[in-house]
Amino acid sequence: MTRPADRLRIPADLERLAEVRQLVRDVAGAAGATRDVVDDLVQAVDEAATNTITHGYAGAPGWVDVTVAIEGPTLVITLEDDAPAFDPTGLPDPDMTVPALVRGPGGMGIRLMRIATDELAYRPRATGGNILTMTRSIAPRPEENP
Questions:
Q1: What tens digit of pLDDT does each residue of 45-93 get?
Q2: Are β-strands 74-81 and 63-71 bridged in parallel, bridged antiparallel, or unpaired?
Q3: Would 144 be classed as within a structural domain?
Q4: What's the angle, vertex CA 86, arms to CA 117 and CA 49, rounded to 5?
Q5: What is the DSSP code string of the chain?
Q6: 79 assigned to some structural domain
Q7: Is residue 53 part of a domain?
Q8: Which residues are bridge partners to 79 per DSSP?
Q9: Residue 146 belongs to a domain
Q10: For residue range 43-54, what is the model confidence (pLDDT) as tens digits?
Q11: What is the CA radius of gyration of the chain?
Q12: Are the C-beta atoms of residues 76 and 32 closer than 8 Å to each other?
């Protein structure tokens, strides 16, 4: 199944993230994704948008565009913004052998995005800013209960 993408632009305001989560739920649900797939995608998109608003804009005004598309057996979610360029795909995973209280905060959100998606890709916007694309199969992974 392929259908036109659903798109939402929100201001860089954490209180608007519920709209983003609902968009992902609606489109993934319409695609027939299982609850595990939907939950993974909602969490990954919420983390990415939160990072953009919190760290990218850091209190400055801005926007986040979220596009959710069904492309055959895959959900493709794109987040676009005009915050300072930042490529999360280039960061290493945190050292999980170090206890959380010793390791400290940071890095877990990007790890979560990697785990929750099949592919995470970044490219800078031609006019400045970021484009982060997440893909995930609509079908559950073997370890997930359908």
A1: 999 999 999 999 999 999 999 999 999 999 999 999 999 999 998 866 6
A2: antiparallel
A3: no
A4: 50
A5: -EEEEEEEEEES-GGGHHHHHHHHHHHHHHTT--HHHHHHHHHHHHHHHHHIIIIIITTS--EEEEEEEEETTEEEEEEEE-SSP--GGGSPPP-TTS-HHHH-SSSHHHHHHHHHSSEEEEEE-TTSSEEEEEEEESSPPTTS--
A6: yes
A7: yes
A8: 66, 132
A9: no
A10: 999 999 999 999
A11: 15
A12: no
**Which amino acid does the sequence have at 34?**
T
Whole-number percent of the chain with pLDDT over 90 = 74
- Give the list of residues 6+ apart from residue 2 with CB closer than 8 angstroms, or none: 70, 71, 72
φ/ψ (deg, to 5) at 142:
-55, -35
- Domain tally, the chain: 1
CA distance 19 to 25: 10
pLDDT (tens digit per residue) in 98-122:
666 665 656 667 888 999 999 999 9
Report the distance separating Cα 146 and Cα 131, nearest Å: 31
| Structural domain boundaries, residue 36 | 2-137
Instruction: Extract the tokens encoding 123.
Output: 């490219």
Which burial class, exposed, middle or buried, applies to 114 when counting CB atoms under 10 A from its CB (0-12, 13-18, 19+)? middle
| CATH number for the domain that contains residue 107 | 3.30.565.10
Question: How many residues appear in the chain?
Answer: 146
